[in-house]
Amino acid sequence: xxxxxxxxxxxxxxxxxxxxxxEEVKNALQLDEIWFIPSYDPPHKNKAMIDAxxxxxxxxxxxxxxxxxxxNTLEIDRSGISYTVDTIKELKEEYxxxxxxxxxxADMVEYLPKWxxxxxxxxxxxxxxxxxxxxxxxxxxxxxxxxxxxxxxxxSFIRERLRNNQTVTYLIPERVNxxxxxxxxxxxx
Length: 189
Known about the structure:
Blueprint lengths: L2 E7 L6 H14 L3 E6 L13 H12 L5 E3 L2 H5 L5 H11 L4 E7 H4 L8 H7 L1 E5 L13 E3 L8 H9 L10 H10 L6
Parallel strand pairs: 1-2, 1-4, 2-3, 4-5, 5-6
Helix pairs in contact: 2-8, 4-6
């Protein structure tokens, strides 16, 4: 039976924090793979700044070379707002023998009571909480905790640096940085 970690988000752009979280959770829980599932429209934050095709391309570049990291575009393919409960139901239908672990940062742990059908969701898969500075990994819902090295970075921080023509070297994979520069993504318009 395959054990799969799911890391969702807009990945706008994907950064080293995403990769560190994925690798640490995979190793800590001895998972077979981590599936990166970019959202088309997240229900809990603003729309992505960059087109879905660019985000998919950047994510493919970011995970390239790690055989345990896979890209799954089901939420992009579905388009519109994607709720985790719908995604997990679809995955369980398509992969009936798999066990899924949904990875969330501490900021999302605090938001769990507001998730659509969260009581149903906790019966379908396992939540994995990872620390994020300024937030607590505490909830009444079942949650596995994984300690990860603190790497306080966000996609919004990366976008701000890019808009201000500041370096993002070592914050995002070099291939992603090259992709962004070549296409002039995130520049002030």
